[in-house]
Amino acid sequence: MMSRDFSTKVISFSSGKGGVGKTSLVSNLGSLWAQQGKKTLLIDGDWHLGKLGIAMGIRPQWTVEKVLSGTITLKDAITPISDSLSLLASPSGILGFEELDETSRHQLFYAIEDLQNEFDLILIDHSSGLHQGVTTFAAAAHQHVVVTTSEPTSYTDAYAVMKILSQRYSIREFGLVVTMSHDRAESQRIMERFIEITTAQLNVKIKLLEIFPWEPKLSISIIKQRPFIDLYPRDPFTRKLSLICKELDENPAARNHGLQFFYAPALGR
Ligand SMILES: Nc1ncnc2c1ncn2[C@@H]1O[C@H](COP(=O)(O)OP(=O)(O)O)[C@@H](O)[C@H]1O
Ligand SMILES: [Mg+2]
What we know:
There is one protein chain. By secondary structure, the chain is an alpha/beta fold. It has helices spanning 22-35, 52-55, 64-68, 102-115, 132-139, 152-169, 184-202, 217-223, 228-231, 236-249, and strands at residues 9-14, 40-45, 79-80, 85-88, 121-126, 143-149, 173-181, 205-213. It has a single domain (9-249), classed as Rossmann fold. Helix 7 links the parallel strand 7 (173-181) and strand 8 (205-213). Adenosine-5'-diphosphate (ADP) binds next to helix 1, strand 7 and helix 8.
């Protein structure tokens, strides 16, 4: 087993719109990093429609109420998937993250903050939507990846996410992942234009990390509840996923930052 890195890196994945392939991306990147021996925690931040558990073949057992009442700790709610990979699935109760009152949300944030000492990497698969609870959660990460398709209905939502994160929380750097492309050259052209406009309007830096093709085999991996990268280790799609891991690895976590909900610039605004 690999020795633990000093600092945990927290990477947040947002999209605005759902159905863009974000959960598929997060589960596969997490599996790849875990294969490299990095202790990785996936957090399903989508408590209404969360499917990370389903994608990984896990049925969540915990409820928010049990954690808030102290019956179990958040650590008890984590499911080990493999040696290095763990999942905090969305809870099985009906309470959404957005419906929690401020105090309960803070209590959970503290519990999540505590978890980070156990892991090298924490990947958060956020719910779609721009509710304050969701954006506070997203803002507390080291790296921000926004996932979109090259359709206007999707990238306008990606724009909205970056607008909120930059204006409300002063987040300036984003990685952009484009999914479900039917025509790489066209997607590239559209997204370059999108980046140009967004960069100018929001005063942010955006790095286009990857353009993924439309890939029907992705749904097979969901049906089999196995990560795509396990089923198709030599597929070009898997190779593209590895490149993203590498790219994000090369951008180290800033110390004194990451999952610090109560010291983040968000507070007091
Ligand atoms: N690149 C892709 N090509 C084709 N289908 C995809 C791709 N990425 C994801 N999918 C499919 O799209 C659906 C939604 O994916 P999911 O990862 O749950 O999206 P999100 O988390 O953004 O809602 C799933 O059925 C999945 O198999
Ligand atoms: Mg999802």
